[in-house]
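Annotated sample (chain length 186).
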Amino acid sequence: MGKIKKIRNEIKCATQQVIVSRTNTKGEIIYCNPTFLEVNGFRSSEVIHKPHNIVRHPDMPKSIFKIIWSIISQGFPIQAVIKNKTNDGHYYWTLMTIKPQKDRDNKIISYVAYGKQAPDAVIKKMEPLYKIMREIEESVGIDASLEYLESYLKEQNMTYAQYIKHLNKHREFRCLCDFIKYAIIK
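Output written by the structure step:
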């Protein structure tokens, strides 16, 4: 765990570490890279063919995943800030890009997700927003949480995608070559 630091219950990854997972269309893990396994504290046999929500942290609003699924199931990529939990109860924040993978007939066959450590400044913005959304979900429901997010974003004059991009200011992977550079070369 040379590149991973545990600070109390939080795990922080080195900036060059990339967490990669691939799921089938049902959201079951069909591949994960060694960094995913190391950060989450699993062996490959413990996660392959398991639902990806095995790493979902209870602090995450379900409405964010509703947004993610609505976008990727239409064949579009999305970037999101996600708080995940590890096998031993720790957590980490990641700036995750999720992209549909298609066959020759343009049918979605899987989803690939790759992420890096979310910057502290981004976490400071997202954590209170997600907390409010989660509280709304628990008391009123997912639709009310989505309405809150929509009004919040309207105040920012941005969509969710624009807001995430704004917070990250070019920290996302701009193209596949960036992903390869970080995943393989470093």
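Annotation: Residues 4-118+170-181 form a domain with the Beta-Lactamase fold (CATH 3.30.450.20).
Annotation: The chain has seven helices and seven strands.
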